[in-house]
Amino acid sequence: MTVSTEGAAAVRPDPPSGPAGHALGTTGSSEHAPRRALRSRGALLLLEALVAFAAALVLPLLARGFELDPLNRIAQVSGLAAIQLRFALIGLLFVAAVVLAMRLRGGRHFDLATRIAAAAVAGLASGFVAAGAVVALLGTPWPMFGLNGDSGRIVEWAHAVANGQPSGSPVYPPMPLYTLGYYAEWFHGGNTAYAFKDLQILGAAAFGPLVYLAWRMLLSPIRALAFGVAPAFALIDSYKPYSQTVLVLLVPVLVAMVVALRRSGTEAWRPLLLKGAGFGALLGVLFLTYSGWFLWSAAGVLFAALLYFPWRTGRLRGAAFMGAALAAFLVVAGRYLAVMLTEGQNTKDFNFRFDNFTDPAYYLMWRTDMPGKAGDWPPPGEFGGVGLFALVTFVCLGAAIWLGLRKPLVVTIAAMFISAWVMRMYIASHMYETQTVQLYTRTNNQLLYCGLILCALVAHLVSLRLAERSTPFPGREGAVIGVLCALLLLLGTVSSSMADRYMPAKDGTYRILPWVSHTVRQQNGKCPKFAPGGICSQDGDQSWLTFIR
Predict the structure, then answer these.
(1) Is 256 exposed, middle or buried (0-12, 13-18, 19+ CB in 10 A)?
(2) What's the half-sphere exposure (Cβ side, CA atoms, 13 Å) at 463?
(3) How far apart are CA 279 and CA 338, in angstroms?
(4) What is the greatest pairwise CA distance in the chain?
(5) What's the distance, Cα to Cα, between the start and end of the chain in Å?
(6) How far apart, in whole angstroms, are the C-alpha atoms of residue 149 and residue 521?
(7) Among candidates 201, 46, 50, which has minimal Cα distance to 126?
(8) Cα angle value 232/127/254 (rounded, 5°)
(9) What is the reported pTM?
(10) Strands 2-3 and 11-12, how do they pair?
(11) Which residues does residue 537 pair with via DSSP β-bridges, in sequence order?
């Protein structure tokens, strides 16, 4: 198998060898070759998906057997170390499989082993975070934050929609509510509160496989893991996993759509319309799950679409592609879009939180509305108050545009970054006049993600240039194995940090969310197993109210 140096997803089968590949006497075979190649590629992607999702469930299932007190800090550290040990050992088994595939039978199965290992590492990494959530909630049936805050509202609204009643907010994305409502009916007798705990864990576990598969539309397995999945783990969340998951999926999906639009001028009609409808339906599902990222991205994606529209090679086909995408999107999400365009205009956010009082140009870290002991914030930087991380991000933005000016992969992501930046400043500039926030601080996540991707794409583009040299670097197999080892350590470290972020503690940060879960009285009237001092109440510990800023 060979991967296009353009970074496209298309993986072309090796040309046939021997007499069967000769032009004479192979008409019937050559007619079916593209179809067979498509089926083969589909089977391989299905295998990657199965491996990734299976790997994502291993660590959470193992963590269920841990015997420790999740409110004890030493127990939390031991739990994280136990997860890390299992993550490393299982990951190294897949790396060993790649090494064996390289050495056996002339490396015939090296590419297949690489696919499986990359998919497995992506799943194991998010499974690590999910296993952390399992440890944080050991002994309590409640989701993070119990029935307080967003958790309580989601539980209440999901119960309403599952029973045919309207939710408490018509503009809230309906997909999470219906998913939770029906999942609760199937597995928890309609108890949406207890069911939400499951979906917090499963949502975190699914993060890695979903991101990996989305980036596989654009990049080869190792590049998808390194340049798409790794940056996404700065955003993984086990409290409300669906919102961040939509963001990290939306970026590669929109880029892939722009790439397909660019090629639509010479595409056959049937695959053209099917692709357009597929992209539209997928975007509709994402919009129903969380719509905010569409607002921040709209201007940038429109710019990229106009730039790469096939004005010369096939205007009619390009218009048909976009028309099919729009029609499918409206079929899936048209009703919710109409609600957002009408009632959404009247929805105002008047809640000023911690990040609303910080420099609007600082986006590298979002402290949420429970920042804890933040100290001097933003942290003082070395260059005019700007830190090295920000400088690197901006340099990479320029370098990525320089190296990939003609590539929709780079231009679309850069345009989404700029679009989110402009929307952020526009809303923030009207904050005093309107006395509303409109969630503009959420653009932090999109700016950070797009910035990290652009940094990764610089390495991607440089590696492609080096591969085109007459004397490229030797040892492709060694490079793959080295990158797998590095990513295994990187993702294991990042996942541990993101899991530790939700270990229960009464410290004024989001760690208080699982702490509250251990203080809410169960529906059988008993306290959770590890309730502090054996004390619990109907709403749980309410000291979190003093930490909101």
Answers:
(1) buried
(2) 18
(3) 20
(4) 83
(5) 54
(6) 17
(7) 201
(8) 30
(9) 0.91
(10) antiparallel
(11) 520
